[in-house]
Amino acid sequence: MDILRFIQNKSEEIFHKVVEYRRHLHQNPELAFEEHQTSEFIQKKLAELGIPFQKGLAKTGVVALIEGKSPGKTIALRADMDALPICEANTFDFKSKNKGKMHACGHDAHTASLLGTAEILNEIKEHFHGTIKLIFQPSEEKIPGGASVMIQEGVLQNPQVTQIFGQHVSPNIPTGKIGIRSGMYMASADEIYLTIHGKGGHGAQPHTTIDPMAITAQLITTLQQVVSRKADPRIPSVLTFGKCIANGSTNIIPENVYLEGTFRTFNEKWRNEAHHWISQITHQLCQAFGAKAELHIVSGYPVLYNDEALTQATKKFIIDYVGENHVIDLDLWTAAEDFAYYTHQIPGCFYRLGTGNESKNTCHGLHTPQFNIDEDALKISTGLMAWIAFNHLKIN
Q1: Which domain holds residue 238?
Q2: Is the model's pTM score more than 0.70?
Q3: Which helix (H) or strand (E) holds 192?
């Protein structure tokens, strides 16, 4: 039996079904840890395929098992399920019915694709050893991340998972192409919440105040030296403040200024050092001007590391499936992904599925109200993940 040809043909055969899955999920988005209808939909489709599953991990997560011909290692395939709190601006028939919620990061495509992959693998299970664990994970978008919760609840055990694979849509990569990178790939991401407490007063009498606005301006500038002067220049780092609230007026110096920001990098040791410098600079600068700082740094997702040996082997399987001209070597990406938690436990490989197509208006960025995918990518995604899984478990 030509397994490659079978998988490719089966992927084409079920394409319309996977598109229907994706459109249903897109139309009914649910936020992190609230994916109850999504979970029920997944359970229904797995039951129709006769694939056994466990529900309720991390509240709404679903884990299914496909057993091969004989015992062997267990590998996992992961898809995330949650949507984002964004009002969709698209006008197609299957746009979000849930106001203020939208699948603007492609998790609808990831879930639909893995359901298609499950159907393919279930039909060829006599041709591989071991077990494939299908992980439908909630809350990729919100700290602490569904991955960390599922790991705590034993998703990598019983049976013990030795390798894990995930894919993510990319509007920056043309449809038909796959992006992959060995080693460090995606950044850690920490959240910064800061309030500067000063002393308000009349704008015409600044000498009677402790102006938190002026202190904030100096602090934001000074904190950039954490990146420019404290970081090893060989380690990419980003420190950004995206929210600033000061309820003063043209002639009112406010009592407080509230800030929110993010710190991202690719080195866990430096990450911890940077937290120290952010805290020290913040408190000392505010103190020097008579103000007080209330600082809270929330540690988010860690650095995502693609195991080099596993990724190189997987890259060869991807080339077999789509052709060498359709495989792209990715750069570092400062976005974060909670798939990273898995890669700190076991070898993992996280790759990108091209969904960008100018003629179909699917090049809008992730997390934007206009985001959409070229659904032709689903012809590739289902079969490709099945092919990768099969090759890591195939009977020689």
Answers
A1: 188-299
A2: yes
A3: strand 188-197
* Together in a domain, 257 and 367: no
Do 132 and 193 lie in a common domain?
no
| DSSP-assigned states of every residue in 108-168 | HHHHHHHHHHHHHHHHSGGGB-SEEEEEEE--SSSTT-HHHHHHHTTTTTTTTEEEEEEEE
What's the token pair of residue 200? 């308000």
Let me know: does 128 contact 49? Beta carbons within 8 Å. no
Q: Which residues of 133-142 are buried (b: 16+ CB within 10 A; e: fewer)?
A: bbbbbbbbbb
Q: Is 140 a catalytic residue?
A: no
The rounded distance, in Å, linking the Cα atoms of 381 and 60 is: 24
Q: What gap in Å lies between CA 324 and CA 58, rounded to an integer?
A: 38
pLDDT of 299-315, one tens digit each? 999 999 999 999 999 99
For residue 287, give the amino acid letter: Q
Task: Verify whether residue 324 is a known catalytic residue.
Answer: no
Given the residues 67, 119, 141, 375, select the one marked as catalytic. Answer: 375
Choose one of 244, 273, 299: the last residue of a domain: 299
One of 21, 185, 301, 351 is an active-site residue; which one?
A: 301
Q: Quick check: 267 and 304 in contact, CB under 8 A? A: no
- Helices marked H in 242-377 — which ranges? 268-288, 308-322, 340-343
Same structural domain for residues 256 and 212? yes
Domain tally, the chain: 2
Local confidence band at 395 (pLDDT 50, 70, 90 cut-offs): confident
